[in-house]
Write a structure and sequence with these properties.
This protein is 85% helix and 0% strand. The two termini are 24 Å apart. The mean pLDDT is 83. With 96 residues, it is mainly α. The chain has 6 helices and no strands. The longest helix has 20 residues. The protein is globular, with a radius of gyration of 14 Å. The protein has one domain.
Amino acid sequence: MLKMGTYGLLRFNLGLFPEMSRKFAPVMITLAVIGIIYGALVAMVQPDVKRLVAYSSVSHMGFVVLGLFSFTELGCRARFTRCSITAFQPAPSFSS
């Protein structure tokens, strides 16, 4: 579900409103950093492994949003890499 939100930001927010996306980039970057820190802090205190993976995924999506609104080539590469890793991360964690 988190990756769908990132796709929505990329497809609709940046696609339909590129000028406003650049204008509100500092706000989105600030929210991404808050999400990174909050997700990491909450994940550190989780006793359940599934919740730990869920909150760490929220934290990792903050990095994706950060890369998305950096508007640089390096940010786009990092965003693509992080989304790819996040897509395949949970499957080996829960296989028996």
